Amino acid sequence: MSVVVPLQIGSHALSAPLALAPMAGVTDRPFRLLCRRLGAGIAASEMVSSDVRLWHTAKSQRRMDHAGEPEPRVVQIAGGEPAMMARAARLNADAGAQIIDINMGCPAKKVCNRAAGSALLRDESLVAAILAAVVAAVEVPVTLKMRTGWDANDRNGVTIARLAADSGVRAIAVHGRTRADHYRGAAEYDTIRAIKAAVRIPVFANGDIDSGPKARAVLAATGADGLMIGRAAQGRPWIFREIAQFLATGRAPAAPAHAEVRDIMLAHLGHLYAFYGEHAGVRVARKHLGWYRDSAFGRRAADAGSMPPHQGDDTPAAGPAGGARETDALFGELRVAESASAQQSLARAWFDACSGQR
To answer: How far apart are CA 111 and CA 237, in angstroms?
Structure first.
C-alpha cells in the first residue's frame, strides 16, 4: 500500500494527486470532464497557441472553452516568445483560467520547428525568460510540462526544473523521455527522481503509467508527489479511479462491468456531439470508439494496420473470438456511420455483441 499525500498547487487542493496529461486532439472539454468525474484531480486543456491572432479559429475557441468544468481550470499555452507567452497567460487568466500551464514537452515537429514545446529545452536562457515573464504576468499559479531534455546527450531536466522553481513556477510535470525519444522505448525515471530531489515544488511523474502497480512503482522510483497519465487514459478514463484505489488499498479493483463501460462510452459520444456539433462530433468520436474497443476487448489483429495501438494494460482482456463476423461487420458499419443516431445505435449493438462473446 502507498501513502497518498494530498497535493496542492497554489491555493488549489487537488482531489487526487493524479493529472490527465494534455494531449492535442484528445483532451477536449468532454474528455476532461469525463476523466475528472472518474478520478483525475486535475486536467489541462489542449495546448493553446500564444499567438492571439489565431484565437479566432473554431479550434482555438473550443480549446479555450471551460464551461462547466470543475476547479481548478487549467489552460496550457505554447510558444517561444516571452512577451507573447505573458500576454497569452494574462488573457487566459482574465477569461477564467485558474492555472496556466506552460508547454515545454510537446515533441511534435510542427511545434518544435516554431521554437516551442520541447525545442525550448535547448535554450536555457530563453526558458528562464519565458518562465519569468509568464509568472510575472498573472496572479494565478503557473505550472510547467517538460521532458527530461532534448536528447540523451543533453538531458538537462534538472537545470530546467531549478529554473522553473526559482522563477516561481508552482508545480512541474516531467515526461520521462527526451524530445528525441518522442514516445519510443521505455520511459526512464532516474531523471525525474533527480528533479524531485532538486526542487521543493510538487513534481508529477509522467510516462508509461498504465496500472496501479506501475503507478506505485513509479512513485517509489521517483519520489514524485503525483502522477500524470496520458495515452493510457484513451478509451480507459476510469484508470484514474483504478490507480487511486490501488494506491489507497494495495488491491487491484475489479474491471468495470461491461454495462458501465458501454454507458460511459455512449455518454461520451453524446457529449462530443453536443460540443462539436453532430457532423464534427461523429468524426471525432471515431478514434475514441477504437480506443474503447482496445481497452474493453483487446486489439483485434485484423485491424492492426488501421487502428491506434492498445494504450491500456500490457495484457489486454481477451477479445471476441477470431472470425466473429457479426462484430466485425458491426464495427465496420460503426466506423463509417455519418449521423449521431446511427453511430450511437451501432455502438450499442456492437458493444453488446462483443460482450456476449466474452
So the answer is: 27
